[in-house]
Specification:
Blueprint lengths: L2 H15 L1 H11 L7 H13 L17 H17 L3 H4 L4 H16 L3 H10 L4 E2 L2 E2 H6 L1 H17 L9 H14 L2
Antiparallel strand pairs: 1-2
Helix pairs in contact: 1-6, 2-3, 2-9, 3-4, 4-6, 4-7
């Protein structure tokens, strides 16, 4: 087994276990005026992705269903810091910085397909889920408060899915994303 696959098999179960906490933590950043709006748009788009009915990997698929959600949060954090490096200073909890660093593992895993994933995540700023656009979440305090409340409710209902620590899981994941990414 190669080193990258080994690192993924160690990291991905942790990412799945912390997904609810991660989404809640990122949602708390949406009201942080100290974080530039450009960065908050990436954060909002990535969390809104949790509610997309047609995401890259359907949530019900064993072992893989929520990994795309974990990937999107991390890639969005990396993009947020690239677009607004001053967000690093403002993010006192260090979530954006930590997730951006973890996105490096995703890039190593996906290699050439990482650019396609990054483009997909960039475009989430323009998307909507549950009738809410990223623009509304970022600019309307009432919509944002409702959204953050819904994220909290989702986090409470989230059950960590299984993850089979087997290289075949990584092969399935790469194959799935390779075929689904635009």
């Amino acid at each position: 087994m190669n080193e990258v696959n080994e690192q993924c098999l160690d990291a991905f179960p942790k990412w799945l276990a912390s997904l609810a906490e991660d989404a809640n933590g990122l949602a708390s950043l949406l009201s942080a005026e100290s974080i530039p709006e450009a960065a908050r748009r990436y954060v909002a788009g990535s969390i809104n992705y949790l509610y997309k009915s047609l995401d890259l990997i359907p949530d019900g698929i064993e072992d893989l269903g929520f990994l795309d959600d974990a990937f999107v949060l991390r890639v969005a954090a990396r993009l947020a810091l690239k677009e607004a490096p001053e967000a690093k200073e403002a993010d006192i909890r260090g979530m954006l910085t930590r997730f951006a660093a973890e996105a490096e593992l995703i890039e190593k895993l996906l290699e050439g397909d990482y650019a396609r994933l990054e483009t997909y995540v960039r475009n989430l700023k323009k998307s909507a889920a549950r009738g809410r656009t990223v623009d509304e979440i970022v600019t309307d305090p009432t919509v944002r408060a409702e959204f953050v409340h819904e994220v909290g409710a989702w986090a409470k209902s989230y059950a960590t899915p299984s993850f089979t620590r087997d290289e075949r899981t990584i092969i399935k994941l790469k194959s799935f994303l390779g075929s689904k990414l635009p």
